[in-house]
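FORM 7B - TANDEM STRUCTURE REPORT

SECTION 1: FIRST PROTEIN
SEQUENCE AND TOKENS:
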Amino acid sequence: MTSTAKPSDQLTTLIALGREVVSVLDLDQLLQKIPTLIARLTDFQAFAVYLLDEKRKDLSVAYSVGYPEEMARTLRVEVGHGLVGAAVAEGRPILVNDVDADPRYVEAVPGSKAELVVPLRLKGRVIGALNLLSNMPGQFTEADETMLRQFGAHVAVAIENARLFEREREYTSTLETLAEIGREFGAILNLDELLTRITNLTRRVIDYRTFGILLVNDDTSELEMKVAVRYGDKVSLPRVKLGHGLVGYAALHGESVLVPDVSKEPRYIKVVDDARSELAIPLMLKDRCIGVFDLESPELDAFTKRHVEILTLLGSQAAVAIE
């Protein structure tokens, strides 16, 4: 892409572009717009927005221009690796006008000779990077670096705004789905049918891998597994004493239990071989627990506070219907 802005106009253009980029609330539209706007500031042959996966501590290409399709789809860059990873690790721009002479350079676009990387910083943390590549040695200047750094500040804010907007939109949609589910719960009178339906409908709000519904047996002070699904297949599980394990704790204390790594949790009772994280949600009827939703995942830190909030709402609806 080629810049159309004269040097004397670039500051005015930069201010205008900053306003323009932060006005876009759809993340996909925002990512597609960024290279078009940057082309009004400087020339480049290839471009990518890298976003940081904070759990994996690596970066992937969220959007690109001029990258080989397979490379853009599969590339993951460790923080500290390559010029992009180094810029993110150090939290500062990196300008290299002869990539062949820089040992940190890792080729993503064949024929590239110059690279300019600017980390995307937001409130003191790095969330990704903008990467420009050129097939001409010496393409980028310190002025380009300064402008891209300033523009990157606007981009970081815009990405965060778009993510917040998407989360709120998803949350509103989830609340509407919960209302629909609650109405459906109330129409089912048979307990076994209701529990099976709860299991199926829960997938509409969280894509679980392992899910179980345990109900409290007041006579034995135990939790009895009524429905258990693993990867779509039903499984049978033992009873759990109140206060034992994560589900027993959730039931006894009426509190949700969120464990990002079960190997570090002494209360964890192993049932599923590959489970690495777990979430237990008590089914509360006023101040009384009648059961527990139990979710497990083969991924570390698979569940979030948002999952707790959503499943607590769903659990309240389920508790009323079950009782």
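SECTION 2: SECOND PROTEIN
SEQUENCE AND TOKENS:
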Amino acid sequence: MMRLYPLRFMSCDINVDFVRSSFLSYSISLSLLALSVLFILLKGFNFGIDFVGGAVLEVSASKNCDVVQMRKVLISLECGDVSVYSSGLEHSKNITIKVAKNNKGKLNDVTSVIKKSLLENFPNDNLKYLSSEFVGPQINSYLIKSGIKAIIFALLGVALYVWLRFKLSFAIGILLTLVHNVLITLGVASSINLDFNQSTVAALLIIIGYCVNDSIVIYDRIVFNMKINNKIDSSVINSSINQTLSRTFLTSITTLLANVSLIVFGSHSIFSFSVLVFSGIMIGTYASIMLSGPLLLVLSRCIVGKMR
């Protein structure tokens, strides 16, 4: 009979003292949080048409029109966040071009530059402009409020679940860890000028879900070891993190590899989304290993007191 062995990334005997290095972890996290807040406040975000408004052009073209090349041409104009989508018909293509409003010029001037560039680069594709309209601020403010509400409700919902599943100190710990992950991820988006649109909100929700999954595994192991030792101390925290370390790394590496393929081979429309998810998974993995356990120990001793 064939024996099955569990897949492990590292030895079962590994014993890293994560609690002792918690001061370094806190220092790194506080520095990253400070940098992220500075980038967000001083530089802001590269908002897409979903949030700042812009122009939407509907274009009819021949069936053989190269939409990928068209997207590259429009991006090279540096007119702001540009999205290009197409739907094929029997003898032609309907192409939708979305251009976000920016500070480089009026939308009318930007659309004129786009039309001129398309005519110069695609003279044989029978381009016909079907419509041109502008997205107003009322829709954008609604999307912003909806996105913020979605993230807040996700954070509170996760904290409530963890409170009911474990203890109050666990809920506070995971909430602080998630806020840490989201803020630093937003700092990354601001610092490298990623497009900020509806897919960004989706990426943040994915990151929240992934980070919760990582932290819950560690917390569940901490509860298991607490029942054995009848207490929570640094040895319980360290052993719990070490016991789940192989699983954490394997899950993160396989997820990151899949995400790298999206970054390298995916289209420009999902590039910002893919980079943001990649960054969030990296930050979340670091936080679940280096912060979630030691932070829980601090909370159980100083904030919540004796665990009930």
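SECTION 3: OBSERVATIONS ON SECOND PROTEIN
The chain has a mean pLDDT of 79.
DSSP finds ten helices and six strands in the chain.

SECTION 4: SIGNATURE
Preparer initials: ____
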